[in-house]
Amino acid sequence: MEEKADYISLNLHDPSLAEMWYLRLRREILTDLTEFPYKYPLYPIKKWSDKGVRQFTFRNDVILYSVSDKNHIVYIWAVCTKGRDLYTHLNQIT
Q: What does pTM read for this prediction?
């Protein structure tokens, strides 16, 4: 999320838009995943679905996350812009 907010702020020269994007996405993540963490489908690639990684799309962003039943925690793996190669991105962050 930081990377995209920085891009909007610095490359598009619009810090207020970056803040608005960040706050809107954060609110949506907190609302949806707090109430219904299993609402969204597993990521369709076995390597990641076996780890419980789910994908949640909001506007132009894809949120990849997993849920720990034991700890009652939602882990955000990545937030990517739609159209980005999610598989490559997941492999780079792990």
A: 0.82
